[in-house]
Design a protein that fits this description.
Layout (H helix, E strand, L loop, with lengths): L2 E3 L14 E3 L2 E3 L1 E5 L3 E4 L5 E8 L3 E4 L5 E2 L6 E2 L5 E11 L8 E9 L2 E9 L4 E4 L2 E2 L2 E6 L5 E8 L4 E5 L7 E3 L6 E2 L2 E9 L8 E9 L2 E9 L7
Parallel strand pairs: 1-10, 5-12, 15-22
Antiparallel strand pairs: 2-3, 4-6, 6-10, 7-9, 7-11, 8-10, 11-12, 13-16, 14-15, 16-20, 17-19, 17-21, 18-20, 21-22
Length: 225
């Protein structure tokens, strides 16, 4: 029976499938996380690679926008033991205008398994939901309050009107427009739109140097109202 050796990095409960039956014992190498693909938002700064193995191992293929400590790029497993590692990955903010992907290879016993990562080029805004490549909130002509909901992964986020702030919209009293990492709901107030023409304002959320715009669209009165 294989014995478990604690990794000097980080260890967790083992999850694995036996691959080969060699010498009346099972030998294996398996990526535990990510399963499929890990998707990060543009301002996320850390992720992990978790694997289980009975073999000596190395990592390769780390892109220039991700970093792993040199001490965590290879390891050995004594005969008769298995090891579970969770490797910390530092991730640069995605300040480009497109998503980017990478495959980090976990190499063991002459074979390579790929861990897939994709980093989006926009921030984690849950209200409004991103559609047609943009974030847009639609409010009715008589609506007087609404909010945006988002999650940031850095402690330097800001939310501000882009360009000159229109007179008909403002942040609700006491609402924070900057702060620490976490999930946030920021309310704003509107004056009723008494005209038939719709009007728009743009809020810009910025975190780790990445900005995503939220378009607020207030409808006009219907003709005859």
């Amino acid at each position: 029976m294989k014995k478990f050796i604690w990794s000097a990095i980080v260890c967790a409960a083992v999850v694995f499938a036996a691959c080969d039956n060699k010498g009346n014992s099972y030998e294996f190498a398996q990526i535990v996380y990510p399963v499929g693909e890990s998707v990060l938002y543009a301002d996320e700064s850390v992720d992990t690679l978790k694997f289980a193995t009975t073999y000596d191992w190395t990592l390769s293929g780390v892109p220039d926008w991700m970093r792993i400590s040199p001490d965590s790029m290879a390891g050995t497993v004594p005969d008769g033991y298995y090891m579970v590692n969770r490797i910390m990955i530092t991730v640069d903010a995605n300040q480009t205008d497109t998503l980017r992907s990478a495959v980090i290879y976990f190499n063991a016993d002459g074979k390579s398994l790929g861990a897939c990562y994709t980093q989006l080029h926009y921030l984690n805004i849950s209200h409004p939901v991103r559609r047609d490549y943009r974030f847009e909130l639609q409010d009715t002509a008589m609506q007087v309050r609404d909010s945006v909901v988002f999650t940031t992964y850095s402690n330097d986020w800001t939310l501000a009107f882009q360009g000159e702030k229109p007179a008909w919209i403002a942040f609700a009293e006491g609402e924070a427009t900057s702060g620490r990492a976490g999930k946030h709901t920021v309310a704003y107030t509107l004056e009723p739109n008494t005209s038939t023409a719709e009007r728009t304002a743009v809020l810009r959320l910025t975190s780790r140097g990445v900005s995503s715009d939220i378009r607020i669209r207030q409808l006009g009165q219907k003709a005859g109202e």
